[in-house]
Design a protein that fits this description.
CATH topology of the largest domain in chain A: HIT family, subunit A
Largest sheet of chain A: 6 strands, antiparallel
Strand content of chain A: 25-35%
Structural class of chain A: alpha+beta
Largest interface: A-B, 104 and 95 residues
Oligomer: homodimer
Distance between the termini of chain A: 40 Å
Order of helices and strands of chain A: HEEEHEEEHEHHEEEHEEEHHEH
Number of helices of chain A: 9
Chain lengths: ~300, ~300
């Protein structure tokens, strides 16, 4: 097992030795493609996520230059369309390699049917919570970040307070160059807050601290003011340790994002707002939670 | 002039001779970049629209091959991210050249800055409401629909009750063929509800009726169940007469949509929730409301 992990960690130079098995998911809107395959000499599966990257304004002159070859595809009056072959170093694709990939990764990145779930407080208690408790999803990688065992060089800001503190670092989806796609996550130091559902009046100092000092840090480091940021919490989250997303408004938020300022105001109104509130979100066919809601007759 | 047009039409082989002037617009989500400049020997402006293209499933093996060079950007446990330089012929960018481009083209492709507005109850009363009252935006075209003077043949469902009734009809953006892009609007018969801000306890029967019977009508007419629908209200709305959006979940909702079921539950909790709540939304630089918030020192 140790060997395998080690080889997984050695940086790849190319996809030499990768054998393509199938496309898991194709998204024309986000211009992404998720692929499953194997690396030579291993029985483990690998998942490769390819995603076209946004252009960078600062590099515009490198796109419209004499090294960009054009192949006309259509012309009509003043309009001409071309396939443009811009210099390869200016046109990187973002590749994420997950290796070895588990069944869960494969399911996660496979395209599937989606359903709206209307999770009342009762349904949370009878279906969602037991599911989370039973599965005990590991957040060890989050603890590695919080304990500076991983990614410590990426930390943009830290408030070390164990109750109200957090670490702010770039989201994996951000290239850390293009300000318009700025995307960071604040991960709270406090353990045990699984999601929005767990938040109550005792967490107000934590939430207010993230909203205020996360914004201040982003203004200082990246010169992006709060009026250019969407600051939100996802429900369901992608991992069960409280984290807040800071995203430039030029990025689009997903549906079912809960603005942090709304979360704070709602808890100010009613301390147990998120224990009481019906929460609506989309789940996919292959999510275990879909099966649970369906089996209980709620889908 | 004829010469110039002719030369504009001759297919370009590269951007040789193009001098970059400025970026008009940059969109990280659609991964596009709009550029203005000039071609050598001409005073006319040219607009170049660059857009990354989606991957093609059929060509997947050409992306994850030994000719794709990888440069590691991050690794953590089983996850590695890379800049992938896939073969240039597999990574064309779509370029549209408009030449000569008029002022109108340039305005059309120029980005407007956007700002997040945090509209407290007080700011609504002191800025937004006076603005709406002063402008008296006409909703005569909505009354024409409600009175069957317009678009009556498009009505999918009607409940004629003057207090709790509504008309359900396809949104103009829906082609009425593709079920995955299904998009309808419920427009209330009752006049004078300008937006979410005006909703209170007296409107609960109206809102519950729309949620229930709008969904039933869509299930009956289009066989799309409620678990496949996002049902929401925009704030700010695009016109100031209460309407509810019914959209297939395969469509993407904009940010700042308020789910109708959340609106109902919040008013059940606190009758004047939407008169009390701070509402957050994005406005554009050229919006009159932007000017008002800015002049009042809130942006």
């Amino acid at each position: 097992e140790g060997d395998k992990i080690d080889s997984a960690l050695s940086p790849l130079k190319s996809f030499k030795g990768f054998s393509f098995e199938k496309v898991l998911c194709e998204n024309a809107k986000s211009k992404s493609l998720f692929i499953m395959g194997q690396f030579e000499g291993s029985d483990d599966k690998a998942v490769v996520l390819l995603e076209k990257m946004p252009f960078s304004s600062e590099r515009a002159t490198n796109y419209v230059c004499q090294d960009t070859n054009l192949k006309e595809t259509l012309k009509n009056d003043i309009y001409g369309t071309y396939d443009a072959y811009i210099p390869v170093q200016e046109n990187a694709v973002k590749a994420t390699v997950i290796y070895p990939a588990t069944e869960k990764h494969i399911t996660k990145y496979t395209d599937q049917e989606r359903f709206v779930v209307t999770e009342t407080a009762d349904l949370y208690k009878s279906i969602t919570l037991p599911y989370l408790e039973e599965k005990e999803f590991s957040v060890q990688w989050v603890y590695n970040i919080l304990d500076k065992k991983q990614e410590s060089e990426r930390i943009v800001f830290e408030d070390p307070d164990p109750e109200t503190g957090f670490i702010l670092l770039p989201d994996m989806k951000w290239d850390r160059k293009n300000i318009n796609t700025l995307y960071l996550q604040a991960i709270v130091h406090k353990h045990g807050i699984k999601s929005l559902r767990d938040l109550n009046g005792t967490h107000l100092p934590l939430l207010r601290n993230i909203l205020k000092n996360g914004s201040v840090a982003i203004k200082e480091k990246f010169d992006v003011p709060r009026s250019k940021l969407n600051i939100f919490i996802h429900y369901q989250p992608s991992y069960n340790h409280l984290h807040v997303h800071f995203m430039h408004i030029k990025n689009e938020t997903y549906g079912f994002a809960h603005l942090l300022s709304d979360v704070i105001e709602n808890i100010e109104l009613k301390e147990d707002y998120y224990q009481w509130k019906t929460l609506t979100y989309v789940i996919r066919e292959m999510d275990e939670l879909y099966k649970r809601f369906k089996d209980a007759g709620h889908l």
